[in-house]
Write a structure and sequence with these properties.
The protein is built from 18 helices and no strands. Helix 2 crosses helix 3 and helix 10 packs across helix 12. It is mainly alpha-helical and 336 residues long.
Amino acid sequence: MLPIMPQCSISLLKILLAATPTAKSKNDAINLLIDVMPDELPITVVHSMKLGVDANRHKEVIVKTVSAILLLLLKHFKLNHIYQFEYLSQHLVFANCIPLVLKFFNQNVLAYVQAKNTVSMLDFPNCVIGMQDELTEQTLESGDNLSFCWRNLFAIVNLLRILNKLVKWKRTRTMMLVLFKSAPILKKILKVRTPMVELYTLKLIKLQAKYLGRNWRKNHMRIVSAIYCKVRHRLHDDWAFANETEPAGCDFQQEEEALRSRVEHFNNRRYLCKLKPRATYGVVEPDLVPGDHSLLTALSSPVELPQQWDCEKWVDREVLAFPIDWDRLIQKKWLV
């Protein structure tokens, strides 16, 4: 998966962009509704409403799936090796994942969570089992009796956790949140009164609080108090009283390039056979060339025999010269 990691990350972000409710349709955008749209246009109002509910539900499922895939990849790579996590994180950052997630959040998040695009009669297995009631406009408008859509809430939590993983302990990426003016956007997410959403939103605000200035903290004391109550603190935290417009002694490009060089050195040492063909091993240090310990490779490799070597003499000397008692070999006690 290492050679195709950049293409996979870009493809997932393109799908997420196409499923964003605030995204504008473009000519080169991915058409996500090609599997949902029927061949013939709906005739009645009920059929058109059903098609609209199905299309919105289709986008919600895609956002939920893509966000879960990205989060699971980041968690798996971080548990496996930190440089694998940094490799994927850099590709996501360079592919504009941070502004894309902020663009997704730049909507009425509370209405998105409370969207009712789920109709129990249309869901599996109710749609194929038993007698089906007739769909009406009231049924499609009311949806289920739940006060929130669990799919959308799950997707928002996943996207918040992805942002946290990309930005945590990275001053340059934290400044990206400040430059993209993410504080007002994150403030709107706090309207969703859910512990998980509040926790990860307050974590993102805490990371950039010292770069927002004292006036911002003074005008948002309710958010500062919520951070004190719900977010874990460390001994040397200075987010509540520091006042920095830029991180001291921090070069954005230099920091990312240093991290990229360390990640590339790790990949060349561990996965060189996956990144480059075997013919290019000569330009790399010999200690970094991975060893091939496969049995099939050893059996398929050619063996050069000396010209004086005689196969018949070798068989007579090494095999036939030693008497073998075959009756004794096939006894049961030797076969156990």
